Amino acid sequence: MTAEEELLEQKLHVLDARLRRAEDERDLLIMENEELQEQVTVLAEQLDGGGGGSQLQKDEASREEELIALSEEISRMDMELRLLRDSHATVQERVKEVTAIKEAVRVRIIRVTVQ
After folding, report:
1. Which of these, 72, 93, 90, 71, lies nearest to 82 by C-alpha position?
2. Could you give the C-alpha distances from 88 to 19, 30, 79, in angstroms and in order?
3. Measured between alpha carbons, how far is 105 from 99 in angstroms, rounded to an integer?
4. What is the Cα–Cα distance from 3 to 11, expressed in whole angstroms?
5. b/e for 18-45, b at 16 or more Cβ within 10 A?
6. Cβ count near 84 (within 10 Å)
7. CA pair distance 55, 61, nearest whole angstrom
8. How many CB atoms are located within 10 Å of the residue 98 CB?
9. Comparing C-alpha atoms, which of 36, 15, 25, 17 is closest to residue 78?
10. Is it the case that residue 89 has pLDDT exceeding 60?
11. Mind listing the pLDDT tens digit for each residue in 65-81?
C-alpha cells in the first residue's frame, strides 16, 4: 500500500469515527429534546389546570428556551453530519480510484516484464 493510499485510508477511518460521534451526539440531543418536550407538555397541562401560576410560567418559558436551543443544536449537528457523510463518500471514492490505478499499473508492469 502506497503512502497516498495509507493516508486516504487513515482519513477514511477518522471520518468514520467523527461520523459515529456526530450521530451519537445527535441521537442524545434528540432524546433530551423529547424529554424536554414532555416536561413542557406536563407544565402546560398544569397551567391549564390553574395550579401555581407565575412560577410555572417562568419554568415553562425557561424550558421552551432550552428546547429551542436544543433544536438549533440538533439542526447544526445534522448539517455537520451531512457534511461528514459527503466527505466520507469522497474519500471512499478516492480510495477506489487509487486502488484501480494501482492495479492498472501493476498489470502494465507485469505485461512489460513478460514481453
Report:
1. 90
2. 8, 23, 14
3. 10
4. 12
5. bbeebeeebeebeeebeebeeebeebee
6. 19
7. 10
8. 17
9. 25
10. yes
11. 988 888 898 888 889 98
Long-range contacts of 58-62 (CB under 8 A, 24+ apart): none
pTM for the model: 0.49
Q: What's the grid cell of residue 58?
A: 417562568
Highest mean pLDDT among 7-11, 40-44, 88-92: 88-92
What's the Rg (C-alpha) of the chain? 26
Q: What is the CB neighbour count within 10 angstroms for residue 16?
A: 14
* Count of beta carbons in the 10 Å neighbourhood of residue 91: 20
39 contact partners, CB below 8 Å, separation of at least 6: 63
The CA distance from 3 to 77, in Å, is 32
Q: Are 19 and 92 in contact (CB under 8 A)?
A: no
Q: Let me know how long the chain is.
A: 115
The rounded distance, in Å, linking the Cα atoms of 103 and 41 is: 61
